[in-house]
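Our consortium's second objective concerns turning raw sequence data into structural hypotheses that experimental partners can test. To show how far this objective has progressed, the report includes one record in full. It was chosen at random from the queue rather than selected for favorable results. The single chain below, 274 residues long, was entered without modification.
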Amino acid sequence: MKRDVINYWSEIKLDIVREYATEYSKILTVQRSPSLYHVYIDAFAGAGIHISKRTGQFVKGSPTNALLITPPFREYHFIDMDSKKVAQLKQLTNDRHDTSIYQGDCNEILLRDVFPKAKYSDYKRALCLLDPYGLHLNWNVLETAARMRSIEIFFNFSIMDANMNVFKHNPDSVDPRQIERMNECWGDESWRRAAYDREWNLFKQDEKTNNEAVINAFQKRLKDVAGFAYVPDPMPMRNSKGADVYYLFFASQKPVAAKIVKFIFDKYRNKRCA
């Protein structure tokens, strides 16, 4: 069986998503006038079970957590590139009629097969977890989710990937393939303005900015460009040395959703990685 070994910050992320998904399902289940049909989407689903690096114990993955939520979602859509993980997901769900599993690139599958099942005009709503291992999500996915008005998202922005491969002190040294990957995730090249101070220094080079400048710019972009009405301050995930690994974003069209997520983020914000 293929199991990912996950760090403490990933366990925190799983707890955050599970807590919000539980509240989300409670609210949508009792919604009347009109009644709403709510869907759970996991775009980088994994095998459904992980191993904790901290304890060596099994940890329920996001698909497993979602399937155990009560009241349940009406549908579940799980996507992964890895055929072995997909096989384990199928075993986990045991051919449930409310669950669809897809193997392939979520950037294509979400837009073609899954998001159309959550149309606002059909009184459908969705909670979508976008948890790539790095900068492997296309901006079109985020923008489409916002435009549809029916989809709330959690998105894991890997600042570690960006710092290691894109935001170098010498921008001219960056591999063009890494720049293309960053452009696809950000949606254009405006990330350069956030990542670098364009004023010349003594060496006549661009100065690299800090993580906060990049994250603030992306938060603003989710609002002003994608079109999400509410994007609370993201949750920084830090390793045992205090370095930022990634930031967990939430975006929605609903103020109550943002309020709930802010409460959950604040609850976990000061927990230290072990």
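The partners drew two points from this record. The chain has ten helices and twelve strands. The two ends are 26 Å apart (CA to CA). Both points have been shared with the crystallography group to help prioritize constructs.
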